[in-house]
């Protein structure tokens, strides 16, 4: 039986794995291979939290493959050299993989596909990450979408119930193949010392089994009432599937299929709201593909002249580590630091604080999230930060400045989220815990170690942001 190299990247699963399926359908023995070459991803090579997750996900995948009679081969890059050498050594007939959509990776993959075909290998890529390829949907004029609502309306019109594929219980043996020893995982991606990521694994279990368990838990517990509960920071009201989807430990088609299989057992509002959140993920990839400059540049060129404040390292460092003096912002940043994840509503609040009240450029926040989030995805990260800053596709208007104290009162009404992540405020009851500076006496007495006031006054910061936006508009009128 011939061999097909199944080149794994952010598709670390066996279930509904199109490259694996294609190898088996061609009558070939799949040889799963992961090639470590982060330097090939350009300016947005994976951050520390991503490396921590990937290391555990690869270990889980290796165990799943061994259980099925196969193995995972780990190699170092350069990727093209590694694939060519492995194909020559094993006599492989094909190299198969699922597509990625980051600009640097797309360009690298296109070169690899061309070069592999030139030496006579069958090289083919598949959609294993999205419901719709980024180039499949367009406006009536043939242009990319820049607004979510018409994008999602078009996507739903083209909707087909996704077909999924179950991984086989056994895989063909590779005993006949001349395989290199490969790299050891602990040498390829060493475990950090000290274990700064320990808090991550109290919340998440990387790997395919962890992903399926998270999906089942979401459907059983959080999908009911999702439309409302998803906004409340202290509740387990979101799916928390984002890192599993990013690393491809579960396919989005599998997620959709299982949600739809619930039928009338799930309310229409809850189902549609969750599917729309997956739609935002699709939209982010659509925008990134068509506007590959956006991880570093404003999609809306008007903001190229926006008067951002000069970078202030003291302000940025306090924001990064949850010492802004704004409890809901500090809670979110500490949750991120300890768990590698942050509630979506709070992500908007911390981003608004940085880009509106502090007027620090959104790139500062995007880079920090990129290094600290376990679900750091270039499309979603870029879309989220440009949306919050008002500079991107379907963005929040710049003049929409979230009041973090008001948002905390609404979405953390009993202060449980703040108390969990800012324990020095746990003794302050609502409403003092939302805005301690408005209650100076109990704050001094019960939370003496917490900043006595925010980095900037909320009203003054909002006014400065609106003045900056007004100056941008005045400049546009003058031109």
From TrEMBL:
<dbReference type="InterPro" id="IPR014729">
    <property type="entry name" value="Rossmann-like_a/b/a_fold"/>
</dbReference>
<feature type="site" description="Electron transfer via tryptophanyl radical">
    <location>
        <position position="362"/>
    </location>
</feature>
<dbReference type="InterPro" id="IPR018394">
    <property type="entry name" value="DNA_photolyase_1_CS_C"/>
</dbReference>
<keyword id="KW-0285">Flavoprotein</keyword>
<feature type="binding site">
    <location>
        <begin position="238"/>
        <end position="242"/>
    </location>
    <ligand>
        <name>FAD</name>
    </ligand>
</feature>
<keyword id="KW-0456">Lyase</keyword>
<dbReference type="GO" id="GO:0009416">
    <property type="term" value="P:response to light stimulus"/>
</dbReference>
<dbReference type="Pfam" id="PF03441">
    <property type="entry name" value="FAD_binding_7"/>
</dbReference>
<dbReference type="GO" id="GO:0003677">
    <property type="term" value="F:DNA binding"/>
</dbReference>
<feature type="site" description="Electron transfer via tryptophanyl radical">
    <location>
        <position position="385"/>
    </location>
</feature>
<protein>
    <submittedName>
        <fullName>Deoxyribodipyrimidine photolyase</fullName>
    </submittedName>
</protein>
<feature type="domain" description="Photolyase/cryptochrome alpha/beta">
    <location>
        <begin position="2"/>
        <end position="131"/>
    </location>
</feature>
<dbReference type="InterPro" id="IPR002081">
    <property type="entry name" value="Cryptochrome/DNA_photolyase_1"/>
</dbReference>
<dbReference type="GO" id="GO:0006950">
    <property type="term" value="P:response to stress"/>
</dbReference>
<feature type="binding site">
    <location>
        <begin position="375"/>
        <end position="377"/>
    </location>
    <ligand>
        <name>FAD</name>
    </ligand>
</feature>
<keyword id="KW-0157">Chromophore</keyword>
<feature type="binding site">
    <location>
        <position position="226"/>
    </location>
    <ligand>
        <name>FAD</name>
    </ligand>
</feature>
<feature type="site" description="Electron transfer via tryptophanyl radical">
    <location>
        <position position="308"/>
    </location>
</feature>
<dbReference type="InterPro" id="IPR036134">
    <property type="entry name" value="Crypto/Photolyase_FAD-like_sf"/>
</dbReference>
<comment type="similarity">
    <text>Belongs to the DNA photolyase family.</text>
</comment>
<feature type="binding site">
    <location>
        <position position="274"/>
    </location>
    <ligand>
        <name>FAD</name>
    </ligand>
</feature>
<dbReference type="InterPro" id="IPR036155">
    <property type="entry name" value="Crypto/Photolyase_N_sf"/>
</dbReference>
<dbReference type="InterPro" id="IPR006050">
    <property type="entry name" value="DNA_photolyase_N"/>
</dbReference>
<keyword id="KW-0274">FAD</keyword>
<dbReference type="GO" id="GO:0006139">
    <property type="term" value="P:nucleobase-containing compound metabolic process"/>
</dbReference>
<comment type="similarity">
    <text>Belongs to the DNA photolyase class-1 family.</text>
</comment>
<dbReference type="GO" id="GO:0071949">
    <property type="term" value="F:FAD binding"/>
</dbReference>
<dbReference type="Pfam" id="PF00875">
    <property type="entry name" value="DNA_photolyase"/>
</dbReference>
<dbReference type="InterPro" id="IPR005101">
    <property type="entry name" value="Cryptochr/Photolyase_FAD-bd"/>
</dbReference>
<dbReference type="GO" id="GO:0003904">
    <property type="term" value="F:deoxyribodipyrimidine photo-lyase activity"/>
</dbReference>
